[in-house]
């Protein structure tokens, strides 16, 4: 578990990503989180099928930064979809996720 304290203007959100289990896929997800200096409270990964991983993240930060990071994650070819803090998942026809900001 990776712990970090969020500042007073930061809020925590839980995301679930569905990621294709291919070489380098997890590293690509983690590199975006590292580059953007996202505050992580928890990070867990489970196998969801023979070729799919479920990565659960509890992230903190300003809402605008979290939204930007989420957009980048959904742009990765290995990310098939994402569930937001309210449990909504919006995969596209080609299996890649889209972010619904409503």
Using brief descriptors, characterize the structure shown:
2 helices, Alpha-Beta Plaits, single chain, 102 residues, 4-stranded antiparallel beta sheet, 24% helix, disordered C terminus, alpha+beta
Detailed description of the structure:
With 102 residues, the protein is an alpha+beta fold. It contains two helices and four strands. It has helices at 25-35, 63-75, and strands at 11-20, 39-49, 52-61, 79-83. The protein has a four-stranded antiparallel sheet. The chain is globular.
Strand content: 35-45%
Fourth CATH level, the homologous superfamily: ACT domain
| Order of secondary-structure elements | EHEEHE
Structural class: alpha+beta
Helix content: 10-25%
Strand order across the biggest sheet? 2-3-1-4
The assembly state of the depicted protein chains is single chain
Distance between the termini: 31 Å
Main sheet specs? 4 strands, antiparallel
CATH topology: Alpha-Beta Plaits
Q: List unreliable stretches of 5+ residues.
A: 92-102
SSE blueprint and pairings:
Layout: E1 11-20, H1 25-35, E2 39-49, E3 52-61, H2 63-75, E4 79-83
Antiparallel strand pairs: 1-3, 1-4, 2-3
Summarize the structure.
The protein is an alpha+beta fold and 102 residues long. The protein is built from two helices and four strands; from the N terminus they run βαββαβ.
């Amino acid at each position: 578990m990776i712990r970090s304290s969020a500042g007073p203007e930061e809020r925590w959100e839980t995301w679930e990503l569905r990621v294709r289990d291919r070489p380098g896929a997890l590293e690509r997800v983690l590199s975006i989180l590292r580059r953007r200096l996202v505050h992580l409270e928890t990070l867990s990964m489970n196998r969801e099928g023979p070729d799919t991983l479920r990565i659960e993240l509890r992230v903190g930060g300003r809402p605008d930064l979290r939204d930007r990071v989420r957009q980048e994650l959904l742009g990765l070819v290995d990310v098939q979809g994402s569930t937001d803090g309210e449990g909504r998942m919006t995969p596209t026809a080609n299996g890649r996720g889209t972010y619904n900001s409503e």
